[in-house]
Amino acid sequence: MLGVYLSGTGNTKHCIEKLVKLLDQSAKVIPLENENVISEIQSSDTMILGYPTQFSNAPIMVRDFIK
To answer: How far is it, in rounded angstroms, from Cα 28 to Cα 49?
Structure first.
């Protein structure tokens, strides 16, 4: 399991770390901006994505990443 997050203030990072560790103690958590994020996703069977909302939507960086 892998937790990927985008966090400006650290709140989303804190939440994704807590959630992922509750589900799987051996899971990794990395920021969306990490240069190895794609290879980490490819080597994981499950990914949880966490991000803050902006104007009731995902930030542009997250939408671009999903595309």
So the answer is: 12
